[in-house]
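Quick one: structure for this chain?
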Amino acid sequence: MADSAPSEKKLVRIDVSSDTVCPWCFVGKKNLDKAIAASKDKYNFEIKWHPFQLNPDAPKEGIDKREYYRRKFGSRSEQMEARMIEVFRTVGLEYSLSGLTGNTMDSHRLVYFSQQQDLDKQHELVEELGLGYFTQGKYIGDHEFLLESAAKVGIEGAEEFLKNPNNGLKEVEDELKTYSGNITGVPYYVINGNHKLSGAQPPEVFLRAFQVATS
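Got it. Here's what it folds into:
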């Protein structure tokens, strides 16, 4: 093929396990995006998001974030909030503990649904959900917020899909068992099927991982 590019881009497949209420997962996503932007001349990327639930028993109706963290972490909760504010500023965002937290199953059903349409839309949806939940006090279990986020990234049929609580439920539950069952913490990344990373790594760690996974 005479007109092919002198050095063809290599494919980097990234499977991410995360929970939509995990702040480190969102920081990790922002760092991953930086690494992708810095190396898109070398690689093509295919990113898939997989569900993980930090608290599967969290209430569907939601609970005040500060109250929830106080109950869970006691006196350490204020220190943790200060730390997250600091960390979010490193990725150019203002972390907010306003609003509610709660069960993430509906958000994972929507993320699964978006993947059926387009992987890029799924990635963009994860961004919208994170911005709303972590910086704007939106509730991750609020269907209005979920549908607003889906509309922003061009996902079609989201309202119809979410309306039935069984849509996508089996698929998400299967993934929680099979894909995320052996993972003890998130975010968790598998690059090209074999190179594994955990935690909100800085962009340079992702860049090295892309190199190792494609060599």
